[in-house]
Amino acid sequence: MGLYASLIARSERIGTLPPLTVDWYRTRLRVWTRDPAAHRHIASQHQLVAPTHRVPGPHPVAELHAVADPELIAGLRLGAPTGRRQAFTGEWYAQHAGHGGETVLVSEDTDKHPHVLVTPDFRSWAVVARESGSVGLLAGRTIRELVREAVVADGALMFHGAAAQRPDGRGVFLAGASSAGKTSSAVWLGRRGGRLVGTDRTFLAPTGTGWLAVGLPVSTRLGAGSVEALGILDAVRDRVPVRAINPFRTGGSAAPAPRSEPGMPMDKVWLSNGEIREIVGSPFTAATRLDTVVVLERAACAEPRVERLDAADAAAALRPHLLAPDPDYRSRWLARDAAPETPERALSGLSELLGRHTVVRLTWDPARHCDARLPHLMDEADALARDSAVVEGMARP
């Protein structure tokens, strides 16, 4: 019996909680765990409402089993590695061939969250952690990576950007440099009767009926300024779980405590989809129709300014935010073929996108302007895009 089959059999003997169903765009997973805390974490992280726009049909349902098994981790005996795979942000896995063609990926992180991934077919997976406290985190990471792999395999473009669906159903994609106001803008639009789609990384996916904005299942990270502007400081201060060590724990005037992990932001609070809905009042949906493309540019200005970009300027404005190649990924590490994505494919897709959508630039100071005026600014962006489409349509022979 292979390692994957033995893990499933062991889980069935011990017993698990009822499976969670995660439907994220086209990815459909049944997630099994026997850890109540992990169960709650996964459910909150992937809380969604159904899309209001038609999306392509789902992929077949796959299984994800997430367990803590320190004995297996300690006693794992495999042959020599057949290779190594680099995952996100430089994390490495040793790849081994298991019984019956299964693939075993052993994390080389032996200190923080030691774990093993096992798959018989690169669709269904088992995640085995050493510590029970790691199960929810590792299962969430794996779900995120499986969603990413599926959407990239469909030909979508991945951006450092945010997206929201406005109350009237129109979808907006927001690109821009760090601190340009992407996440705050998406949250503002979502909380005023709309829906959040993505708050850090967002896919733009071509379909037979147009382009969709598709979110990636990650925590929403809000800085101190955004939390204060949204009026939710009291709701998040000393909240558990807050996954960053930051001033929210002790009050805005106190010095932040040392970082708990390398690279952890000191001035951001991390909230799951369920927490965002509870605190902010905005539900998440996995995808929305793409109606408006906005590039946010931070500037010291008294009033915000909205302008349409011509094709050349639009390409120059969006290219820095197109993650091709993605600096956090050197391979499609959960695919059977881990060959990296090629920039050429993504750049071709960007040209196709710009042939269908006008890009609008919003120059503003998000600390001053990202407030109740935002829906009106988006209406202005819509009007510019529509006027441009009419002019271009009249110019065509």
Question: What does this protein look like?
Answer:
With 397 residues, the protein is an alpha+beta fold. It is 31% helix and 26% strand. The protein has 12 helices and 19 strands. Strands 9, 10, 11, 12, 13, 16, 17, 18 and 19 form a 9-stranded mixed β-sheet that branches. An 8-stranded mixed β-sheet has the order 1-2-3-8-7-6-5-4, sandwiched between helices. It has a two-stranded antiparallel sheet with strand order 14-15. β2 (27-32), α2 (36-45) and β3 form a beta-alpha-beta unit. The longest helix has 22 residues, at 374-395. The radius of gyration is 22 Å and the shape is globular. The chain starts with a helix and ends with a helix.
- The low-confidence parts are 240-266, 393-397
Tally the beta strands: 19
**Largest beta sheet, briefly?**
9 strands, mixed
Category from helices, strands and their pairing: alpha+beta
What's the average pLDDT?
87
Radius of gyration: 22 Å
Distance between the termini: 66 Å
Query: Helix tally?
Result: 12
Q: Fraction of residues in helices?
A: 25-40%
Oligomer designation: single chain
State which percent range the strand residues make up.
25-35%
Global geometry: globular
